[in-house]
Structures are given as structure tokens and as C-alpha cells.
Amino acid sequence: MTTRTDAIAHALAWFDDDDGYFKTLSDRVAVPTESQEPSQLPELYRYLNDYIRPDFEAMGYEVVVYDNPFEGGGPVLLATRIEDAHLPTILGYGHGDTVRGQADRWTKGEGPWTLARDGDRVYGRGTADNKAQHTTHMGAIRAILETRGKLGFNSKFMVETGEENGSKGLKELVAANKDAFMADAYFASDGPRVSVGKPNLTLGNRGCVNFDLVVNCRDGGHHSGNWGGLLSNPGVILAHAIATIVDQQGRILVDALKPPPISNSVREALNGISRDGGADAPVIDENWGEPGLTSAEKVYAWNSFEVLAFTTGNPSNPVNAIPPRARANCQLRFVVGTDYQNLRANLRKHLDAHGFDMVEIADPPPGNDAIFLAARTPPDHPWAEWMKGAVKRTTGSIPDVMPNSGGSICNDVFQDVLQIPFVWMPLSYTGCSQHAPDEHILWSLTREGMELVTGVYWDLGEEGTAYRP
């Protein structure tokens, strides 16, 4: 009789085989799926049709690739395996697209599109985000089928190719094909763990909205010797405007940009949580952000206002002239309950009240204009409780449970359109250089992820542990 242990051992044997996990991931990383580059749209289709579709079809799934309703948006694959209409259906997710490769800035590995191992680190664009993570899930599903002969539950798995471009069109696509995507619960992996040494589950995400603040004083620059002290400086104006929004220690000063008070259930969930980004992670600035909150509460239960870029004049070649304009690209990461719909109106009211009516709130540049909504599964939901038990059966201890991640992803599709509970099991770590040059995974952590994910899929189909919503 095949056991849970047999299935995990089978999955790990494939992981350790040179022609197994590493080769599979290497082939997928080699596809330059840069969704922020319109010219790479054919590569997004190639990734789904040549590298994802065949593997799911070999496991007995029916596969459909949907065109994105958003013009230029990446296609979406849905693989479906229905074993028994009376069994629960679990929806999985991954995204095959990546941010831009930034090939000229890599200092480790062999560039963005070649998988390269150096000790415990495996470099390549999309390794951490998200090709390695959905490759792990697909490998775990295969291990269950090859050992038990069936899943024991119904499975649907979505792979989109527009997440790094804001998942534009995904909500509309899923809504238009709701029956095809409908499931009883959602289980996927993306993003980093809170701590390298301990698994955690994540029940949602912060939302994210970007916008530009612009001061345009006049046409052309003017000699600072002749006009200094007479002409307003847009860089100075914009700096002071931003200082009324966030103070010198990162504390948000505008009440309308803050979330509601942190609930007791969220505080309890975060009690004792500490971040460990692993080697080379930056040192936390303890005095930065909202005073009175723990580091975990600042990231997972509060909002943050960031200035991502600020330009005035010509920074690379400054001249002695008062610049005509200044522009700052800003971002609000926000938790559930924040009034994000009225963000611009509230910010406009704040700036006007402080004498900054000349500061324009403008759209950010393309590629930086994605809007993600905050979403969260209640910590006491039966699906969250079941997932905790599945992880404990592998590790022997209850995992940390995060109310939401600090980052943003398309959870609102599952919350608002499908209205199903979702739980994430992140398999990366915060020092992975996600979105930056030298992106990588930790081989040991990814191997542990294979063990954890296989355990979950085994338990879903096992009579004594199966999830029954």
C-alpha cells in the first residue's frame, strides 16, 4: 500500500534527479517571458503551449489557453482534471511571466535566462517569482498520480502570464468563464517566507496603487545665478509636499491613507513573528515606519507610503539652472479596510489644504500602473485550519500563519469573483533579489517546498485527512 511517505520520497527523487526538477526549471527559465515588454507576447504563448500544456496533458488534465481580453495582455492557461463530481475541487495558480531581464546588470550566475547553480543558490530570472514555485506544485501533483494512481480530489490549475504587468484582464477573463474556474478552495505558492528556517502560510495580500506627483513650473530651465531666489524651484516644492504626506521616519501623516486599527485577531496571528531574510538581506531600520508597531505589524498589518523615484533637472549631468519641473513616482501598499477608492481625492484635498495646489496627481508610466486590491481569508476559516494541519503532518509543528503578505497579487479575483477561500504557501525567501538582477532561489528551501506541497496534495485525497468543505 502506497503511503504519504512514499509519495514524498517519489517527489524528492524527481527533484534530486539531474534530468528532473533542474532540467524542467532550466527549460522554463530560458523562455524570456517579460510581460512588461509588448514584443515578448509570443514568448508568453510559447511558455504556456510548449512548457506547461504538455506536462498537464500528460497528467490527464484538459487544457485551455485563453486570450486575454486586455489588449496586449498575456494569455491564461487553465488545466482541469475532474475525477468525481462529488469531490471538492482545488484551484492552483502560478504566473509564467517575469519582470524585465536586466541582463546587463547581473553579477551572479550566467544572466537572466540561463539557470545556474552556485552552492545553495540557483540563479535565473523567474526562479523565485514564480517559475520555480509553480514547477514545484506541478511536480508534486505528478508524484501523487504516479504513486496513488489518482489525486483523490478534483484539480484545476491556472497559469497566467500577466502578473508582473498587474494581472490586467484576469478578473474580467475569470468572470466571463466563472464556471470553468470555479473551485471550493485555492492553494498556491508565490512570494517569500517570513523566515528562511520556518514554513508559513499566508492568507492574503496587501493592495498596491502607484501614482505620480508632478510640479510643472514653466518651460525650460533658467540660469541659477541670474534667477536664483526669484523663480520657484519645482524640486524644492515637491520635496516639501511629500514631507506633508510622510515624515522623515516613514510615518504616514495623512489619516485618509492609513488603515483601520489593527484587529485583535491579526495582532494575535502576528504575535512572535520575526523576519529573517537570510544572508545578504538588508538590516531592518527599527525606527522606520509607524511607531508602536512590531516589525511584522508594519509589513503585514499596516500601510506604507513609498517614493520609488524622484527626478528634477538632469541628475546624471546637472547644470547651473533652476529646473522647470519635478516628478516623483509614489506608491501606497495597503491592507484590507483602507479607502483606496478615494485615494486621489483624499490626497488632493490634503495637498490643497497645505498650500500645494500646484502639485498634480498624475498617472504613473506604463508598466508601473498596475492596481492590486487587498484581500484576506479569515484566519479561522476551515480551509486555513485544514492547511495548518497538513503542514504539521509534514514538519511536526504548526506553521506561522500570516494574515496577508506584504506584497501584492491578484487575490481579489478569487475573493470577489470566485468567492472562495485562498491560502498561500510561499517557497522563496526575502533575500532572493526578486525583481532585481541576480534573482535566485535557495535549492535547500525549494527541496523542502517540494516535500511540503506533496504532503498537502496527498492529504487532500486521503480518506482520513481529506478536506471536505
What's the architecture of the largest domain, going by CATH? Answer: 3-Layer(aba) Sandwich
| Termini gap | 27 Å
Q: Quick one: CATH class of the largest domain?
A: Alpha Beta
Largest sheet descriptor: 6 strands, mixed
Strand tally: 22
Beta-strand content: 15-25%
Structural class: alpha/beta
Q: Which of globular, elongated, flat, extended, rod-shaped describes the shape? A: globular
The low-pLDDT segments are none
Give the overall pLDDT as a whole number. 96
* Major sheet strand order: 1-2-6-3-7-20
Helix share, percent? 25-40%
- The CATH superfamily name of the largest domain is Zn peptidases
Total of domains: 2
Radius of gyration: 24 Å
* Helix count, DSSP H or I runs of 4 or more residues: 14
Q: Provide the CATH topology of the largest domain.
A: Aminopeptidase
Q: In a few lines, what is going on in this structure?
A:
By secondary structure, the chain is α/β, with parallel strands linked by helices. It has 14 helices and 22 strands. The strands form seven sheets. It has a six-stranded mixed sheet with strand order 1-2-6-3-7-20, sandwiched between helices.
Molecular structure report:
Strands 1-2-6-3-7-20 form a six-stranded mixed sheet, sandwiched between helices. It is an alpha/beta fold. The longest helix has 22 residues, at 127-148. It is built from 14 helices and 22 strands.
Walk me through the topology.
Elements: H1 4-16, H2 18-29, H3 41-58, E1 62-66, E2 76-81, E3 89-95, E4 116-118, E5 121-123, H4 127-148, E6 154-160, H5 170-176, H6 178-181, E7 185-188, E8 192-193, E9 200-202, E10 204-205, E11 207-216, E12 222-223, H7 224-227, H8 234-243, H9 264-270, H10 295-300, E13 304-312, E14 321-322, E15 325-334, H11 343-353, E16 360-362, E17 371-372, E18 375-376, H12 382-395, E19 400-402, H13 411-418, E20 422-424, E21 428-429, E22 440-442, H14 443-461
Parallel strand pairs: 3-6, 3-7, 7-20, 8-21, 9-19
Antiparallel strand pairs: 1-2, 2-6, 4-5, 5-22, 10-18, 11-15, 11-16, 11-17, 12-14, 13-15
